[in-house]
């Protein structure tokens, strides 16, 4: 009988160690090594097999084969559809709608061939109940309730489905590994076997991965390196919409996002996300300013709100939701030093409406305008939008895709646009019906209130 031994595996990078240490020697993360029981394999002499060598110009290639998922927003994030033989990992918070999205996708893609839906968490009755609620014709969707990965792969090779869905990878186990389901070793090996099956058989595989408390997919980071595409489903059960974002995509851009609305009949694509994000906006309230971010090829309008109140403590409080905390402190320092707006004795709160995350530097100007509006108690004009990057010298720098941002603001009925003067000089004003206000520094922010 093979001998069992203990090793310690890092949950972040997958590195192994013979004994427990507090700091991973590979990725330098603390308290990430966990014990795993593995089966020691007997030593074998080096294999005499050699791999086949094929010159690149002799490789036969008929072009990249993509198939539409039937869901426009999902196709956008994937880069145009599902590539044959690809492995896609999708993660998200519990209740975000991962299983719902994949089941809806199976309903659309079953028209081109049978689908194999493998579940290790739910029974066939539970999946059927959800399919009926979503109104999915499940005739060509074949349910497999199994947790042993070798059985799943052999079944897929025999049935030859057009698509395989694994829900979820944490419930799968490899019989050759002695550790429990969901362990670092099991998740890594099961993902590698599924990836090899996808490449050998040309069958696309979608893998659901649970996330840990930090929002990353549970298991070693190496499983994200194994697969072709990594998607994150942002949003929770308390929000009416979800954002699908690509963290990695070998077959397309990682800048595109998909926006969905959760309804009683499942996930619905949002065709006009800017109007959705601005829905319910209250006019003539100080501390509110609309900005435009560009996600891939899509401009999105969203509202930034700020509140400045007298602090009751010795050290003022700064809170940012949906906006970078360090960027908030930087903008406050620049406004105080370069423009004379004092926040040193005020608690400051910044919130991006709708719960989305804004990391693009182009939102600096709108955040600064909302902060000035909050501290002076002057409302920003309702029909104004602002975008631009702010430097430490107080200058407002140009941003990319200015024309697309202006066109989107104009389409939604905005009449004034505050932007960097360097961007304004490159534009033909006669093309736009919206009034363009060029700003060179933070001292010019007062112009937007006139």
Q: Can you walk through the features of this model?
A:
The structure is a single chain. It is built from eleven helices and 23 strands. By secondary structure, the protein is an alpha/beta fold. The protein folds into three domains: 3-40; 65-271, 3-Layer(aba) Sandwich (Rossmann fold); 276-449, 2-Layer Sandwich (Ribosomal Protein S5, domain 2). A nine-stranded mixed sheet has the order 8-7-9-10-6-11-12-13-14. Strands 15-16-18-17 form a four-stranded mixed sheet. A three-stranded antiparallel sheet has the order 2-1-3, with no helix packed on it. The mean pLDDT is 88.
Give a quick summary of the entry.
The chain is α/β, with parallel strands linked by helices and 450 residues long. The chain is built from eleven helices and 23 strands. β17, α8 and β18 form a beta-alpha-beta unit.
- Helical fraction: 10-25%
Strand order of the largest sheet: 8-7-9-10-6-11-12-13-14
Given this structure, which CATH class of the largest domain is correct? Alpha Beta
Strand content: 25-35%
Q: Low-confidence runs (pLDDT<50, min 5 residues)? A: none
